[in-house]
Specification:
This protein is an alpha/beta fold. The chain is built from twelve helices and 18 strands. The strands form five sheets. It has an eight-stranded parallel sheet. A three-stranded antiparallel sheet has the order 9-13-12, with no helix packed on it. A three-stranded antiparallel sheet has the order 14-18-17. It is globular.
C-alpha cells in the first residue's frame, strides 16, 4: 500500500479521505465533525437535517400547513435551522482539524434558498459544499458569494463540460474539486443516463481519466477529483494513488461511515448492514426524483417491484388490440384492455389487489385497498420536498404542480427516509446503500459485530484496509 499524501481541499492540506454526505440526517454534525477531527473531510447532509431543542432533544418535523405550499415553507424552515445546527456541531467536534463540507441535492426543495439560509447562518463554519442530483449550475455563484468552495457531483466528463462552459468558468477560484460518483457503484441517487445500461457497469478508471483530461484542458490539472462509489479497501485502488494520468485524487466513502459509533443511524440498521449478502443491493428507478438509486432490496423495494409488475396498459376507448372493457374506480368507469391483460387484471383482483390506480403512462397498477389508501394519503400530505415530484406531482413553480398525473408506482421519499432514520423500521422503509455494502459481513475489521469509532476507521483506511 502506497502512503497517502495530503491533498489541498478547501484551502487546507488534509488526508485524501472524504466522508460522503447522505441525506435526511444520515450523515450529521457528529459523524462529519469526527471525520474532520481525524484529519479528513467530513460531510454533513444539508437535506432536511435534524434540529434540536435547547435541551438537546430532537425536534420531529411535523407539518401543520393546510396546503402543499404552506407545508413546503415549513419544510424549508426545518431545513435551514437543521443545516445551521449541524454545521455548528460539526465545527465544534472537528476541533480545528480537517475540513467540514455540506452536501445538498440540486433537485431538493428550493435548494438555492436552503443554501443561502445555511451558508449565511453558519458563516465561517462550512468550508465546502458538494452538490449533485441534477445540473447545479448556480452552486458556483452561491458558494463564491459566501467564500466557500464548491464540489459538483458528476458521473461523466460530459456533464462537467456542460457545467464548466455554462457557469463554472466564471468562478474557477472557488472550484475546490470535482466529485466523480460512479453511477453503478454509489449508494443513494445515481447519475445513470438513458444512454447507459444499468446492467452493464463500466469501469471507473477510463471515465475518471477522461474527466481529468477535460479538466486539464480547462487549466484544472491540479484540482482534486473525488472518487466516490465502490471504494472499500484502498489497497484495491493503489494504481490510482500518485498516478500522473489522474492527478490529485481523494477517495470518498459513503457506505463504510454508516457503521461507526458516531453514525446517527439506529442500531438495528447498523446490525442489518453486518448481515447483507452480495446481490442484496438493487439499482432501481422507483425514486420520485426520476433518477436511478441504489438501495437494499428489503420488503419496501420488493413491494414496489411487485406493484409495478401488476401493471397493464389501457385505453379510454376501444382501439386496436384494446377491446376488452374493464371497470375502474368507485364510479366503475370503463377502460379498455387487451383480452390477455384483462385476464391478468381479473386474476390480480381475485388475489386481493382490487384497486386499479392510473399512472401518467396510461397504465393501471393493481394494489390492495389498504395500499391504495396509503398512496393517496401520502400524495395528499405532500410537503414539497423536491423541486419536482413524480409521486405527488408537486413542483416548486407558480402552479405548484408538474402538470402531470401523480405516479402511484413511486413513493413519498421524505416520509420513508425520515422513518428509517428515526425509528427501528428497516424492513418497510427505503434503505439506501452502495453496491459494496455486503462487504461489512466479510471484512475482518467488523468481526463479531465490531463497530469502530470514526477515528479508528480512518486509521484503518490509511493502512489500505
Amino acid at each position: 500500500m502506497k502512503p497517502l499524501n495530503g491533498v489541498m481541499i478547501s484551502g487546507r492540506e488534509v488526508l485524501p479521505l472524504v466522508e460522503g454526505g447522505k441525506g435526511i440526517s444520515v450523515s450529521n454534525g457528529e459523524s462529519s465533525g469526527a471525520w474532520a477531527a481525524a484529519g479528513g473531510v467530513g460531510t454533513f447532509s444539508g437535506v432536511n437535517a435534524d434540529s434540536y431543542s435547547e435541551t438537546g432533544e430532537h425536534i420531529a418535523q411535523i407539518y401543520h400547513g393546510r396546503t402543499r405550499r404552506e407545508r413546503h415553507e415549513e419544510l424549508l424552515a426545518y431545513a435551514v435551522a437543521g443545516g445551521i445546527q449541524q454545521a455548528q456541531v460539526a465545527y465544534e467536534r472537528a476541533g480545528g482539524e480537517g475540513r467540514i463540507h455540506m452536501n445538498v441535492l440540486w433537485e431538493m426543495a428550493a435548494a438555492e434558498r436552503v443554501l443561502h439560509g445555511v451558508l449565511q447562518g453558519a458563516k465561517g463554519l462550512i468550508h465546502g459544499v458538494t452538490c449533485g442530483a441534477g445540473m447545479p449550475y448556480r452552486i458556483a455563484e452561491i458558494s463564491a458569494r459566501y467564500g466557500v468552495y464548491y464540489y459538483p457531483i458528476v458521473s461523466s466528463a460530459r456533464a462537467f463540460r456542460a457545467l464548466w462552459k455554462r457557469a463554472y468558468h466564471r468562478f474557477r477560484e472557488w472550484l475546490g474539486g470535482v466529485v466523480y460518483e460512479d453511477p453503478w457503484l454509489a449508494g443513494g441517487h445515481n447519475g445513470l443516463t438513458n444512454s447507459e445500461d444499468p446492467n452493464n457497469p463500466e469501469p471507473p478508471y477510463p471515465r475518471v481519466r477522461d474527466l481529468r483530461r477535460l479538466m486539464s484542458e480547462f487549466g484544472l490539472a491540479e484540482t482534486p477529483i473525488f472518487m466516490a462509489g465502490g471504494v472499500w479497501y484502498l489497497r484495491e485502488w493503489t494504481h490510482w494513488i500518485d498516478n500522473p494520468e489522474l492527478g490529485p485524487i481523494a477517495f470518498q466513502f459513503g457506505t463504510r461511515p454508516l457503521l461507526t459509533q458516531e453514525s446517527p443511524i439506529p442500531e438495528v440498521w447498523k446490525r442489518k448492514l453486518l448481515t447483507l449478502e452480495d446481490g442484496e443491493v438493487l439499482l432501481n428507478r422507483f425514486s420520485p426524483t426520476g433518477f436511478y438509486s441504489s438501495a437494499v432490496r428489503n420488503s419496501f423495494l420488493r413491494e414496489l417491484e411487485e406493484r409495478s409488475a401488476r401493471q397493464v396498459a389501457y385505453s379510454v376507448e376501444a382501439l386496436g388490440e384494446h377491446i376488452a372493457p374493464f371497470q375502474v374506480g368507485a364510479r366503475n368507469r370503463i377502460v379498455y384492455l387487451t383480452p390477455h391483460d384483462r385476464e391478468a387484471a381479473e386474476r390480480w383482483v381475485a388475489q386481493g389487489f382490487g384497486e386499479a390506480l392510473r399512472t401518467p403512462d396510461s397504465t393501471l397498477i393493481f394494489v390492495t385497498r389498504e395500499k391504495a389508501l396509503e398512496i393517496r394519503t401520502d400524495q395528499i400530505n405532500c410537503m414539497g420536498c423536491l423541486s419536482a415530484c413524480l409521486f405527488s406531482n408537486w413542483a416548486q413553480n407558480e402552479a405548484g404542480t408538474t402538470g402531470k398525473k401523480a405516479d402511484p408506482r413511486s413513493f413519498c421519499i421524505q416520509k420513508t427516509l425520515q422513518a428509517i432514520r428515526h425509528s427501528d423500521d428497516i424492513e418497510f422503509q427505503l434503505m439506501f446503500a452502495g453496491k459494496n455494502a455486503y462487504r461489512f459481513g466479510t471484512d475482518p475489521f467488523y468481526a463479531n459485530g465490531y463497530i469502530p469509532m470514526v477515528r479508528e476507521l480512518v486509521e484503518r483506511l490509511e493502512t489500505g484496509d
